[in-house]
Amino acid sequence: MPNFVFNHIYIFMMLLFGIYSQLIMRWQVGLAGPLPECFEGKIYFVVRLLLTPWVISAVLATFFAGVSWMLALTKFEISYAYPWVSLNFIFILLADVLFFGEKFSSAKCLGTVLIIAGIVVLARR
Predict the structure, then answer these.
(1) Cα 32 to Cα 54: distance, rounded to the nearest angstrom
(2) pTM value?
(3) How far apart are the two ends of the chain, measured CA to CA in Å?
(4) pLDDT in tens, 71-94
(5) Secondary structure string (H, E, C) spanning the chain
(6) pLDDT in tens, 39-58
(7) How many CA atoms lie within 13 A of 11 on its CB side?
């Protein structure tokens, strides 16, 4: 049983790296302003974002999320591990509400409950 619990660290590391990456990208894109209309402006916009330390850290976090996912798949069947990815939706939604002022509606609440129910049903061994 201790190995079973310990092996979940790979799943949770994948979640943490992924959530970090998405939130940093959301924050930095919000600070960068609107996307320019012209093609050259769009290229400059993306390159400028990609060269910021925060975005570089988010790209690295995405890489480490992938590594963590590979490690998780060495310990679990994908049919067990994949439903855990759905937790990203919940944590991103909550972080968006807390950090970026997104509205939390009854539809989002219902969707979150359905995601949690789906995780419980699919992740049962």
Answers:
(1) 12
(2) 0.85
(3) 13
(4) 999 999 998 888 888 888 889 989
(5) CHHHHHHHHHHHHHHHHHHHHHHHHHHHHHHHCCCCCCHHHHHHHHHHHHCCHHHHHHHHHHHHHHHHHHHHHHHCCHHHHHHHHHHHHHHHHHHHHHHHCCCCCHHHHHHHHHHHHHHHHHCCC
(6) 999 999 999 999 999 999 99
(7) 20
